[in-house]
Specification:
heterodimer, A: 256 residues, 80% helix, B: 249 residues, mainly alpha
Chain lengths: 256, 249
């Protein structure tokens, strides 16, 4: 609190407030009630896309990291290629490859259209989720590789000596230790993942960015939706940072 | 040798024809797009490094107001998606420039996609570069800078002769990451309609319906850029580390 009360900060805060008041009065916000419902829907879609893609991506990243850190070459090499491939090409290209590329393959296999999965495959979100998950898996696979390597070997040997099974060593010692070390990195990566979600708007998934674009196209109001959108993402990123800080506090306790 | 391959895999010949450099093929378009991407990435990275150096020095040695404003800049840019920043800066930048020109009595101009792309991505890169360079400068032992001061060098000389060479090995991993981000972020300009690699690819793909061929080809081009630059940065890093015996980060 005291940090905020320095004289120059008070002036800056005053200026920011004045700017906010000016923006509220002078700019056009009358479109908000009309698009509120759509906005809420978009926000919800952004949220679950982020949560599911980080969840699935991380579940893939653990074996990817483990294969690279300790696996046999047969597993380590493909895992490394996958990570290089994902990290070396733009996400937008990956999204378009998966959406348009897979879409262009389906007509060759008529049975897909008659299968029970077709109502789902016809929509855009499965491709968005797949692309986002694979991307997160690629980046985090690399992070987890470093994390698994950074756990001191003595700890694993000690656990083995105590009679832990290999699975128990992994579950009780290796993974928690590795996680505790990379939580700060993962927090940053999750914010980056949040910042990637608007790209799926290009394949007709209506998340919060697509809603703002629609406002811009319908009403020709340029700045207001974009500014509001930037604020939404700022708050979102802030929440992610806070959540990871809490996780860090819980997991860092056992870190010696 | 190619003929044998074509016989074994007929689809390959069609793909090769689509990707050929002469007009019925789209190879030349893709390469032109890749060149555009590379130019924007280079420009944005250069601009980003310039902004980052100024920002890092401002954060470390500036007054309280400068420091707070820089904190706002780096926080906002790193939390808001690049796509939104690109749109905001693109519209606002064109608007402000034209208003300024109008006030001076000039006619409004159309900003070229290239300049806008470089400017916008440069501002984004600048925020990340500020943090990378600040960390690296802070890690330079104070004694070295004090020693340089004691030898009578002025601030500029200290920065050029001592701070920069000492911090570069520490900053290079971060900077090489930034460069990779720059090459990939150029793809975002496809959304505002600038014809770089990704947009050229999409146009080629949608007019020929050969989505897989073109997106995979573009992916390979991006991958080549990334792998080559990773090599180059590794080489530069090895070179600059020579004077740093124990400085392996």
């Amino acid at each position: 609190m005291r940090a905020l009360l320095q004289p120059h900060r008070l002036v800056l805060i005053g200026l920011a407030l004045a700017l906010a008041v000016w923006a509220a009065v002078a700019l056009r916000w009358d479109w908000i009630p009309r698009y509120a419902a759509l906005g809420a829907e978009g926000l919800w879609r952004t949220t679950w896309l982020l949560v599911l893609s980080t969840g699935i991506g991380f579940a893939l990243a653990v074996p990817l990291g483990l294969a690279q850190a300790a696996g046999p070459r047969v597993l380590a090499l493909p895992a490394r290629w996958f990570c290089t491939l994902i990290r070396g090409t733009p996400l937008l290209l990956q999204i378009w490859l998966i959406y348009y590329g897979l879409g262009s393959l389906f007509p060759q296999y008529p049975w897909i259209r008659h299968s029970d999965l077709w109502p789902i495959l016809r929509q855009a979100w499965p491709y968005a989720l797949l692309a986002l998950s694979l991307s997160y898996a690629g980046y985090e696979g690399e992070v987890m590789r470093g994390a698994f390597r950074s756990v001191p070997h003595g700890q694993l040997e000690a656990a083995r000596a105590y009679g832990f099974s290999r699975l128990a060593v992994f579950r009780r010692i290796w993974l928690p230790q590795a996680l505790a070390r990379v939580l700060p990195t993962l927090g940053g990566e999750t914010v980056l993942q949040l910042k990637s979600t608007p790209l799926v708007a290009t394949i007709t998934v209506i998340e919060i960015y697509a809603v703002a674009s629609r406002v811009r196209q319908d009403t020709f109001i340029i700045y207001e939706p974009l500014i509001l959108l930037a604020l939404v993402y700022l708050v979102f990123a802030g929440l992610i940072v806070l959540a990871f800080r809490r996780l860090e506090r819980r997991f860092a306790r056992g870190l010696g | 040798m190619l003929d044998g391959l074509f016989q074994a895999w007929p689809g390959l010949e069609a793909s090769a024809a689509l990707l050929s450099l002469s007009p019925p093929g789209w190879g030349a378009n893709l390469l032109r797009g890749a060149a555009n991407s590379l130019i924007i990435a280079l420009g944005a990275f250069g601009l980003g490094c310039a902004i980052g150096t100024a920002g890092a020095l401002g954060k470390l040695g500036g007054g309280p107001v400068t420091r707070d404003l820089l904190a706002v800049y780096t926080t906002v840019v790193r939390a808001v998606p690049e796509l939104i920043l690109i749109l905001l800066l693109y519209y606002a930048g064109t608007d402000l420039l034209n208003q300024a020109l109008g006030a001076l009595g000039y006619r409004p101009v159309e900003i070229s996609g290239l300049a806008a792309g470089i400017g916008v991505l440069g501002v984004v890169q600048g925020a990340y570069a500020t943090e990378v360079l600040r960390g690296a400068i802070q890690a330079v032992p104070r004694g070295q800078i004090e020693a340089a001061r004691a030898y009578g060098m002025n601030a500029v000389q200290v920065f050029r002769r001592v701070t920069v060479p000492a911090m570069l090995p520490l900053a290079l991993p971060g900077l090489s990451n930034l460069w990779l981000i720059a090459t990939k972020d150029t793809a975002l300009l496809a959304i505002v309609g600038f014809s770089e690699l990704t947009l050229e690819t999409r146009q080629a793909a949608s007019s020929t319906r050969a989505y897989f061929t073109f997106f995979l080809a573009a992916g390979a081009l991006y991958l080549i850029m990334t792998l080559v630059s990773a090599r180059v940065f590794g080489w530069i890093e090895a070179r600059y580390r020579r004077g740093h015996a124990g400085a392996r980060a």
